[in-house]
């Protein structure tokens, strides 16, 4: 027979936030990445399904996409992990000044990426309406672009919020840390998309 448990403590002093698995925001971000990761996985499966049905890849008379814009984009987006990591560490030690500076940087860094992404669409050498190859190439690039814009928008809003009185709240630092974690998903998923769009057609030509 178990004895009833009594608790006379005051919960007012317990923390209202937590990083990592202690945070509901963390679980939300992880869940979102799982869902979006499955969406990318379905696109990758469609890519290889279409590839298997073609005699050549890319189909004649199309040439593989030009490498310049996509490669420069890849180098720049990977380099954004440097300020992103600084922001994440600063958020977890409640360093408001560093978080503010870092978020401003991360709000500006994607702007040249958007310009390069425009050149990427132009360098695919195929339209989405031409054939299945063109459709999957555009689908991969467009899907990643949507993720890029979404996270940039989140970062811009968070940046503005951190410069208000709300930016001093502990939960906002948790939001900043998890936003940085999602940016890692954005650039890491791009590496796979980059290989499929730019290099697989070259390896199989």
Which keywords apply here?
mainly alpha, single chain, 205 residues
How does this structure look, described?
- The chain has helices spanning 24-53, 68-79, 81-92, 96-108, 110-122, 132-162, 170-204.
- The radius of gyration is 22 Å and the shape is elongated.
- The protein has 205 residues and is mainly α.
The radius of gyration over CA amounts to 22 Å
Strand content: under 5%
DSSP summary, beta strand count: 0
What does the oligomeric state look like here? single chain
> What gap, in angstroms, lies between the N and C termini?
74 Å
Question: What is the tally of helical segments?
Answer: 7
Summarize the topology:
Blueprint: H1 24-53, H2 68-79, H3 81-92, H4 96-108, H5 110-122, H6 132-162, H7 170-204
Helix pairs in contact: 1-6, 1-7, 2-5, 2-7, 3-4, 3-7, 4-6, 5-6, 6-7
Short account of what is shown:
The protein is mostly helical and 205 residues long. The protein is built from seven helices and no strands. It has helices at residues 24-53, 68-79, 81-92, 96-108, 110-122, 132-162, 170-204.
